[in-house]
Structure formats: structure tokens, C-alpha cells
Design a protein that fits this description.
The protein is α+β, with helices and mostly antiparallel strands. The chain contains 5 helices and 11 strands. Helix 1 crosses helix 2. The radius of gyration is 19 Å and the shape is globular. The N terminus and C terminus are likely disordered.
Length: 245
């Protein structure tokens, strides 16, 4: 199975989202169709499905199904405030010079969204988010942090999924790492969520999301937004991992 070879472009626009961030090159963008008409979005999803499955003629049914499923999901995510979606494919083990192949491949998804939030002050907003998340009964970890872009909250939670099968129950676990980052001067919050079923790699993914969060910048007020376009991520070599201090 192939993976999409479509790194996010540094000058792509995101409507009404005046911020920027960078992702590692292991992330492969899933089109959300923001600002695209139906025909353009269908073409984007067809290209995505082609990159996912390759161009073999016998895989056309799989490409069509992938385009339809991911397309429906992308429309829903965009309607809920998503501005960026991607799958991450990270090799684990092996040698840095490539002489030894990786022992395995770890996968995750990354979703970035913008949500409305009463935000009189970023510090107060972050404190309110932390308190609200801490009151949930999901056994999650909640940690206030300070990022270059301002005060934020890290939320790490696990999920257990159980299927009833003829030969008994089958269970799977997943981890979701979130960063909630209030806009500095708007009633909105930036939510970055990384999810994976490879729970043994949670510390690696905490470091990966921390590196992404360290690159977030916001435009400085209305004047700045008139002068420069809002951006979605560009791929970049990550700095030294910093798993939230």
C-alpha cells in the first residue's frame, strides 16, 4: 500500500484562520476541501486515493471507496471547524543512515481545528480549559504549559474499544494527545489532536506534537491579517524533541 505524497504547501490558505505551524515530513495531508467547489474537491480526493493505493487498474474499486469514505469524513470535519488533517507514518528503529531498515512502522492521525471560545485573556482561557478537562472522568492527564505562542493545555487520554467476535472479545486501545491553545486576541481556540492505536509510541508522539506546537505563530492583530495570508503547515525537519518540558 502506498501513502499520499502531498506535503502541505507553505502558502496554502485557510479561511478565517490567521495562524501558521509546521509539521514533520512524515505527515501526509488529507484534503478537507476548504474553499474548493464540489468538482475540485472530488479531484483532490481522487488524487489522494490514487496516492494511497497506487495506480494499478485492479485497485480502482479501492481507490473509489477510499475517496468516498475519506471525502465524507473530510466534509464532516470541515463543518466542525477542522482546518488541517493528515496521516502520519513514522519508521521506528533501524539506523539513521538507512543501512538498517526500520523494525516497524508507527501510524497516527493529526487533526487541527479552530473552535469558538469566550476568551477575555489567553491565560484565563487556558486555565478554564485545564479545569474543565480535569473534571472529566476519563482518567486523562491534564497539564498547563507555556508555548512560544502563549499559554496552552496538554490533554492526554486513552480509549478502550471492544468488539464481540465469534471466538470472543477483541479489544484495542488508542491514545489521543491534544493541545488547546487560545488565540491571543480573538474568541477562538486552536485545537491540535494527534491520535494513534500504537499506544507503545505515546512518548514519541507527545514529542512530535510538542515540536509542532512550538512552531505555531499567530498574526498580530487585524492589521497583520490584512497584510499577509493565513497559512497552513509547511513540512520541516523537527527540532530536538521536547515532550512538553
Amino acid at each position: 500500500m502506498a501513502i499520499p505524497d502531498s506535503p502541505a504547501e507553505p502558502d496554502a490558505e485557510v479561511a478565517a484562520s490567521a495562524f501558521r505551524f509546521q509539521v514533520q515530513p512524515e505527515f501526509h495531508e488529507i484534503p478537507l476541501g476548504i474553499g474548493a467547489d464540489e468538482a475540485a474537491f472530488d479531484a483532490q480526493m481522487a488524487a489522494f486515493a490514487g496516492g494511497y493505493w497506487g495506480g494499478q487498474e485492479e485497485r480502482e474499486p479501492l481507490r473509489a471507496l477510499t475517496a468516498a469514505l475519506y471525502g465524507a469524513n473530510s466534509r464532516h470535519l470541515a463543518s466542525e471547524g477542522a482546518v488541517y488533517s493528515a496521516m502520519g507514518v513514522f519508521p521506528v528503529g533501524g539506523s539513521e543512515d538507512g543501512s538498517e531498515p526500520p523494525e516497524r512502522v508507527s501510524r497516527c492521525t493529526l487533526l487541527v481545528s479552530v473552535q469558538d471560545l469566550g476568551n477575555p485573556d489567553p491565560m484565563l482561557a487556558a486555565a478554564g480549559i485545564a479545569e474543565t478537562l480535569a473534571r472529566t472522568k476519563d482518567g486523562a492527564d491534564v497539564l498547563p504549559v507555556r508555548l512560544p505562542a502563549g499559554p496552552a493545555v496538554v490533554h492526554v487520554a486513552g480509549t478502550r474499544m471492544v468488539w464481540e467476535l465469534p471466538d470472543g472479545e477483541q479489544e484495542r486501545f488508542a491514545i489521543r494527545v491534544e493541545i488547546w491553545l487560545p488565540f491571543p486576541d480573538e474568541d477562538r481556540v486552536l485545537l491540535m489532536a494527534l491520535s494513534t492505536a500504537d499506544v507503545q509510541d505515546v512518548y514519541m508522539y507527545q514529542a512530535i506534537l510538542a515540536d509542532i506546537a512550538d512552531t505555531v505563530t499567530f498574526d498580530a492583530g487585524e492589521g497583520a491579517r490584512q497584510e499577509e495570508r493565513p497559512l497552513v503547515p509547511s513540512t520541516a525537519t523537527p527540532p530536538t524533541p521536547n515532550p512538553f518540558g
